[in-house]
Design a protein that fits this description.
seven-stranded mixed beta sheet
Length: about 300
């Protein structure tokens, strides 16, 4: 029986970067954890059980036997025309006990471990199919700093709800991301399917990624990348139009080759003529000016 080479699935190829967003290479994730079939009914059942296990179950109401008062019969048995009553602490009375109210209980469901592990594989495979898995070599934080944590998320191109799977040695990084509301931090040993499902991005380190990570084939390209690619400096929008002198000479019409643009002197003469016409329109006719002068003389006399 001859050995056959199986081509790696494209969504298993992811970029390996540092916390500053610099590309270190392309790696191939473990198919056992990131290449499983997404079983939606199983995911729903396990996630529901995990949410139910988080319920405290401390709610409690009092029955008619636990409510104080109501020892005396409110009124006689017969002759009032009303329904017979034995106590004012019955459920139909104000201040009475609660019928069939909640009592403290445990909501935990028994889920086999094999189902829990398979649900986690389904959730991780679903995020890998969508290209939402990010691999960082390590968190190189010397001191806790939220500003640097925000810069790391921006450099990796992560937005929305981000799940950081960290190890025990990532204490400084955990404190750096602790104040970011959109970031959920979980230890590798506590990772659940619910944590993966409610997150838009899942970020692993070399120490926390499940399975065996191997180098991608030479020339392989990552299935999806959220890293912002540095684009060359854009030129200014306002570009100066530079026309060679030779072209300007060609654009100027020669003498006798058609209409020539009017000179500045001719344009000035036309403007003076237009102003004279406007003054002539506003001036009174000669007869009217003579009548006006005679009237002024008579008034002076």
């Amino acid at each position: 029986m001859t050995d056959t080479m199986v081509e790696a699935r494209s969504w298993l190829l992811v970029e390996r970067c540092n916390d500053s967003g610099e590309l270190l290479g392309v790696v191939q994730l473990d198919e056992e954890y990131f290449g499983a079939v997404v079983n939606v009914p199983l995911l729903h059942q396990v996630v529901t059980a995990q949410l139910a296990a988080k319920r405290s179950g401390t709610h409690s109401t009092k029955t008619r036997a636990e409510v104080s008062g109501g020892g005396a019969k409110p009124y006689r048995q017969k002759g009032t025309g009303r329904a017979r009553q034995g106590t004012t602490r019955a459920p139909q009375f104000t201040g009475g006990g609660i019928a069939f109210g909640p009592k403290p209980r445990d909501y935990a469901q028994s889920t086999p471990r094999k189902m829990v592990r398979q649900a986690l594989r389904s959730a991780l495979s679903d995020r890998a199919l969508e290209g939402r898995v990010v691999l960082v070599d390590r968190w190189s934080y010397d001191v806790p700093k939220t500003k640097r944590a925000q810069a790391s998320l921006a450099a990796l191109g992560l937005d929305g709800n981000v799940l950081l799977v960290m190890g025990g040695q990532d204490v400084l990084a955990e404190r750096s991301f602790a104040n970011l509301a959109q970031v959920n931090i979980v230890e590798a040993g506590q990772l659940t399917a619910y944590d993966v499902v409610v997150s838009d991005w899942v970020v692993f380190t070399d120490d926390t990624v499940p399975g065996q990570v191997s180098d991608a084939p030479e020339g392989a390209v990552a299935y999806s990348s959220a890293r912002p690619v540095a684009s060359p400096e854009e030129e200014d929008d306002e570009l100066e139009l530079v026309v060679p002198v030779e072209e300007v000479a060609e654009l100027e019409p020669a003498a006798g080759d058609g209409p020539v643009a009017e000179s500045a002197a001719e344009v000035g003469e036309d403007e003076e003529a237009a102003r004279a016409k406007r003054r002539a329109r506003t001036r009174k006719p000669p007869e009217a000016e003579a009548v006006a002068e005679s009237d002024d003389e008579e008034e002076d006399k």
